[in-house]
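Here is the promised in-class demo. Please do not try to memorize the tokens; focus on the logic of going from shape to residues.
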């Protein structure tokens, strides 16, 4: 995985955009949803990376139990620097993690953030949460 591939993955989900709230050296990927009936937008971060090929990593939101499992099984995954380590993983992308696994973690992060939006906002994004019991969209 390289910085361009990560950017493409992060921007492939509905309603996403790249922002630089911490300065030009850190890309922050957010999902944007309309708030109310107006033009006001709410944006929530689901990934952040310096996109530095020399120290390439990304911070991703993760379910706490899964975060612990991933960290125990993969030395490239730790608690995210400057983030709540219960809910955010720091993932080194210059190691042996398969690209498909990284994509899945980015998608999981996006889904966790979109799940916190209102049902109307989720519908605007075309996002359907899966029912835990049936695996079917609700």
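The designed amino acids, position by position:
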């Amino acid at each position: 995985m390289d910085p361009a591939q990560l950017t493409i993955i992060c921007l492939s989900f509905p309603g996403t955009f790249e922002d630089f709230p911490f300065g030009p050296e850190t890309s922050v990927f957010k999902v944007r949803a309309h708030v109310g009936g107006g033009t006001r937008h709410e944006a929530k971060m689901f990934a952040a990376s310096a996109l530095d090929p020399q120290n390439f990593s990304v911070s991703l939101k993760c379910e706490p139990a899964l975060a612990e499992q991933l960290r125990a099984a993969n030395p490239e995954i730790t608690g995210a620097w400057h983030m709540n380590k219960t809910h955010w993983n720091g993932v080194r992308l210059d190691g042996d993690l398969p690209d498909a696994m990284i994509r899945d973690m980015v998608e999981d992060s996006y889904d966790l953030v979109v799940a916190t939006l209102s049902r109307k906002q989720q519908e605007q994004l075309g996002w359907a949460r899966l029912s835990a019991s049936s695996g079917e969209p609700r």
